[in-house]
């Protein structure tokens, strides 16, 4: 049994993950709004406090994020800073504190961040979001490279679109329908699809996987089923 801290535990992927980990027999501590606002400074102190209250953690999952859409030419500094704070800066702060706590107690650990296929695939209106996830992937490699010999692994999952019915990040049904038509599998992702891969990455079967961002998109990253074709 592992003790796992999940940030963004009330979100679509976060709640599916906490349920999956509990089902697998792990002890799960969830953190989310209103107790933890990842847009604000102080994330590391919050992780340090949760560590002390729970006797430490074997794993950290950063499953929080915001997905606002805005044309790149209309994106200002305030918009950029907010997206980067939640999606990237908070992951750095949480991960760095997790590493410090593990090293202080000479214990191994695993981290998984939720990235996105958007980090590599452009879509109109997602440039700032994509930048935050590309930066997150770089952090994954940095943590893995610098702390692999401390017994600490860091990986990420890169979902395609996942329908989480979020009130914070509402998405028009027309957009979901268009993605469904284009999907290789004929549907968009579900939170449980992503939770299953995160659970695997935290387990011993994935102990030789480190510093990698794993696509979990049903194959949509390879192309679109409704792309133009000359076939009759």
Automatic annotation (TrEMBL):
<dbReference type="InterPro" id="IPR036291">
    <property type="entry name" value="NAD(P)-bd_dom_sf"/>
</dbReference>
<dbReference type="Pfam" id="PF13561">
    <property type="entry name" value="adh_short_C2"/>
</dbReference>
<dbReference type="GO" id="GO:0016491">
    <property type="term" value="F:oxidoreductase activity"/>
</dbReference>
<comment type="similarity">
    <text>Belongs to the short-chain dehydrogenases/reductases (SDR) family.</text>
</comment>
<dbReference type="InterPro" id="IPR002347">
    <property type="entry name" value="SDR_fam"/>
</dbReference>
<protein>
    <submittedName>
        <fullName>SDR family oxidoreductase</fullName>
    </submittedName>
</protein>
<keyword id="KW-0560">Oxidoreductase</keyword>
<dbReference type="InterPro" id="IPR057326">
    <property type="entry name" value="KR_dom"/>
</dbReference>
<dbReference type="InterPro" id="IPR020904">
    <property type="entry name" value="Sc_DH/Rdtase_CS"/>
</dbReference>
<feature type="domain" description="Ketoreductase">
    <location>
        <begin position="2"/>
        <end position="165"/>
    </location>
</feature>
